[in-house]
Write a structure and sequence with these properties.
Layout: H1 50-69, H2 81-107
Helix pairs in contact: 1-2
The structure holds zinc ion.
Length: about 110
């Protein structure tokens, strides 16, 4: 599921570049699977809902960062933890965009068959 692969045939790529490929532009996505022709964007605005997945991922990552960093601070809620969370979220944003769309595609896979 997290391999950037087509939900139908498991061979074609969803994004041109892999999940961890870093670039400053918005990740390019294939419209159709190059192997089986499955359309990834089922309808215009299909990926609007993926924004909520992306948001949930961001919250989960912020909480994870918080719990990982917590033992290194003396106070339970140290304000210095906020910039660290910010940097982590920013660096994961592109991964989140791709991951959320892949999750979204797989969530609706069953209904398209
Ligand atoms: Zn395919």
């Amino acid at each position: 599921m997290f391999g950037n692969k087509c939900p139908n045939c498991n061979k074609g790529k969803i994004f041109e570049k892999g999940l961890l490929h870093f670039s400053f532009s918005f990740p390019k996505m294939h419209e159709n699977c190059s192997k089986c022709g499955t359309k990834f964007e089922k309808e215009p605005g299909f990926f609007f809902g993926a924004m909520f997945v992306s948001y949930a991922l961001g919250v989960a990552e912020a909480l994870m960062t918080y719990f990982i960093c917590m033992p290194f601070f003396e106070e339970t809620f140290d304000l210095r933890i906020i910039p660290i969370i910010g940097v982590v979220i920013l660096s994961l944003t592109l991964v989140n965009i791709k991951l959320s769309r892949i999750i979204w595609i797989y969530m609706f896979k069953e209904y398209s068959m």
